[in-house]
Amino acid sequence: MRSSATTGIGCAAGFVACLLGSFLLLPVIVFGGGSPPEEAVSGELNTDAVPALYLPWVLKAGAMCDEIPAALIAAQIEQESGWDPEAVSPVGAQGISQFMPGTWPSWGRDDDGNGKADPYDPGDAIMAQGRYDCAHADLMAGYLKEGRVHGELIELVLAAYNAGAGGVLDARGVPDNGETRQYVDLIMALVAKYTKALKESGAVPAGQRLASPLRVKALITSPYGVKRPSSAYGYHTGTDFGVGVGTEVHAAGAGTVTFAGWNSAYGNRIVIRHPKQGGKTVETTYNHLFSLGVAKGDTVSVGQVIGATGNTGNSTGPHLHFEVKYDGDFTDPAPWIGLE
Predict the structure, then answer these.
(1) Is 78 annotated as catalytic?
(2) Comparing C-alpha atoms, which of 129, 122, 8 is closest to residue 54?
(3) Are 232 and 247 in contact (CB under 8 A)?
(4) Residues 44, 67, 80, 323: which is the catalytic one?
(5) Closest C-alpha among 226, 227, 294 to residue 260
(6) Cβ-contact 140, 153 below 8 angstroms
(7) Contact 78/188 with Cβ under 8 angstroms?
(8) Global confidence as pTM
């Protein structure tokens, strides 16, 4: 029997009432049912870490919205039930995704097509989990914009899964009830396990000084140098690429990681020191990440996956804020990575 810290959507023992009210606040979002697609894209998920029987459903649930990638779905399932489809919590939460009986009817669908919507059917439960997480992501994003709650969006979503949206709203953030904070922290720590392992590939293209930090096409949502009155530098210190949560971030050059951790403004941040160019120091930074795949002191190669994009820190939406520092000063990344 799992501890009360894994009571899931049903809320902690003292939060059942809050959930019965909170799920009524959320819109019921309907996603297509049927069997999971064989061509589902793995994204940043470490597919080897997910039980093969449940992998298609985790991929499908993780594709519902940008804010909730498959790696988070998988980490949440491990914390909720340890991948046990027959799990029952001390307060009665049921199945692999630990739904309370009072909450299940609003979110459960017959996604596996066997004629019934059942929290003990892994396909039905994992898809309901994705729907519920994505709905909470929309709700919490609105609360953050209105200033009604504070914190990181993903952490607020997880807290709402455990303590209910009403509990998060009452606490104006992750509730300090002796359980929810631990629940959130444990899942965030598990994300690394379910994120694709590091790999090395690529080289700096001819005519460039650095490689691109992304391998996907991405819109530049804010270029270098745009005036930012709120910035300590008075201008935008890097280039913003608009990409969804969970997109692979690659090292722009070989070097040594000098920082990998949390920064109140940049969120999850990585700084890499590269070999000097023209006798001057070169550093690149990767900011607002969802997950970190390297640690301080690690040596990385060109193109190595070092993390995944997110929406952490002082960020208004999922994106990568990429910076280049040359001789200690910020400089426009565009010409370094072949954008102009």
Answers:
(1) no
(2) 122
(3) no
(4) 80
(5) 294
(6) yes
(7) no
(8) 0.58
